C-alpha cells in the first residue's frame, strides 16, 4: 500500500514539475482533516493558510510588475477574479489532484475527491509545501505557470461590468424585477471561511455559487445564473 502511495506521489511530482526533498511535506499538503482525524496526523490546514498568503503575494507582485498601467483598484479586481476557488479548482483538475488526496472514509464515500473546496484547498497547501521545500521561486513558478493565462484574461476584462450588474441589466430588460442574494451556507474555520450564496428572481432560485467571501459567492451565483 505504501509503495503504491509513493508511486502516486511521484506521478504528482511529475505533474507539477517539482521533486520534493521532503516527501512527508507533500503528503501533509494532501492530507484532508477527515484522514488526519482518523490516523492521528496533522492535516493540510496550516499549509493551506500559508499557501493562501503566498498566492496573494505572488499574484500581486506579478501583476504589479507586468501590468504597469493597471490602477490599484483594477489590480484588486483582477486578483479577486483570479485568486478564487474556481481558479484553484481548475489547477487541481489540470494536475489530477483528486487522484492523490488522503481522505477519510466518509469523504471517500461522498466523493470528497471531486469537491471543489477540498481540491482548491489542496492546491493552496501544495503551494505552501513548494515554498517550504524549494523556496519562493519554486512556488512562484508553479503559481504563475498555472495562473498567467487567467490573469491575462482578467486584465482584459477589468473595465467591464461585474456579473451581478450584468445579470441585473439582463433580467430588467423586460421590466422591473426583484433580485435578491442570500447566503445559504457558511462553513470552515475563522481563517478560511467558505460561503454559499443563492440568487433569486422574484423569490425563485436561479443559481448558487461558492466563494471565500460573501461577495465572491454572490458573484459566482450571478455568473452561473448568466450561464444558465
Q: Give me the number of helical elements.
A: 11
Range of strand content: 5-15%
- What is Rg? 19 Å
Quick check: average pLDDT?
A: 91
CATH class of the largest domain: Mainly Alpha
Poorly predicted runs are none
Helix share bin: 55-70%
Distance between the termini: 44 Å
In order across it, which strands form the biggest sheet? 1-2-3
Shape: globular
Structure description:
It is a single chain. The chain is mainly α. It has two domains: 2-156, Ribonuclease iii, N-terminal Endonuclease Domain, Chain A, CATH 1.10.1520; 163-227, 2-Layer Sandwich (Double Stranded RNA Binding Domain). The protein is 61% helix and 11% strand. A three-stranded antiparallel beta sheet has the order 1-2-3. α5 packs across α9 and α6 crosses α8 (116-134). 34% of the residues are buried. The model has no long low-confidence stretch (mean pLDDT 91).
Amino acid at each position: 500500500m505504501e509503495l503504491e502511495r509513493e508511486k502516486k506521489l511521484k506521478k504528482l511530482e511529475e505533474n507539477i514539475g517539482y521533486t520534493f526533498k521532503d516527501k512527508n511535506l507533500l503528503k501533509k499538503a494532501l492530507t484532508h482533516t477527515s484522514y488526519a482525524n482518523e490516523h492521528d496526523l496533522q492535516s493540510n490546514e496550516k499549509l493551506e493558510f500559508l499557501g493562501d498568503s503566498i498566492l496573494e503575494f505572488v499574484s500581486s507582485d506579478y501583476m504589479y510588475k507586468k501590468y504597469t498601467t493597471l490602477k490599484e483598484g483594477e489590480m484588486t479586481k483582477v486578483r479577486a477574479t483570479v485568486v478564487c476557488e474556481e481558479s484553484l479548482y481548475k489547477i487541481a483538475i489540470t494536475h489530477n489532484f483528486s487522484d492523490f488526496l488522503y481522505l477519510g472514509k466518509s469523504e471517500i464515500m461522498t466523493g470528497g475527491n471531486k469537491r471543489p473546496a477540498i481540491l482548491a484547498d489542496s492546491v493552496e497547501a501544495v503551494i505552501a509545501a513548494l515554498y517550504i521545500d524549494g523556496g519562493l521561486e519554486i512556488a512562484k513558478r508553479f503559481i504563475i505557470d498555472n495562473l498567467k493565462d487567467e490573469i491575462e484574461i482578467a486584465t482584459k476584462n477589468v473595465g467591464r461590468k461585474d456579473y451581478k450588474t450584468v445579470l441585473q441589466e439582463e433580467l430588467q430588460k423586460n421590466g422591473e424585477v426583484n433580485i435578491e442574494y442570500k447566503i445559504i451556507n457558511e462553513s470552515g474555520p475563522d481563517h478560511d471561511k467558505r460561503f454559499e450564496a443563492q440568487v433569486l428572481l422574484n423569490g425563485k432560485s436561479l443559481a448558487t455559487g461558492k466563494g471565500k467571501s460573501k461577495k465572491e459567492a454572490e458573484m459566482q451565483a450571478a455568473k452561473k445564473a448568466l450561464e444558465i
